[in-house]
Amino acid sequence: MGTRGYRYKTSHSLSGPGDGGKTGSWRIQRPVIDLERCTPARRGTEVCFICWLYCPDSVISRTIPPVIDYEYCKGCGICAEECPTKAITMIDEADAYQDDEGLQACSTEGPRPCT
After folding, report:
1. Taking the domains of the chain in order of start, what are their residue ranges?
2. CATH 3.30.70.20, domain 24-105, yes or no
3. Which of 29, 38, 92, 108 has its CA at 20 to 30 Å from residue 77's CA atom?
């Protein structure tokens, strides 16, 4: 059998934010990135991004600094487990709030008290 000039095309799909729908409303915990410990943010270069690589829902951007899309994040914690510098921690959803600086964790002491 010979080839008749046919070209075989294959297709593949890549997952993207929202493939599983907005999941932020039922999340119990959410990841928070400590930019002082995050290698790309600290160095200002495109290195590491292990969190981006392992995120099953592609909700972590490959930007400097990395940003998490909380509307689609399930709160699975894989990013926190895989981060080599432990820059990502999981906090309870009830302990998080949004301000002008972005998502912050509240504390029982200091300028950001829990309500």
Report:
1. 24-105
2. yes
3. 108
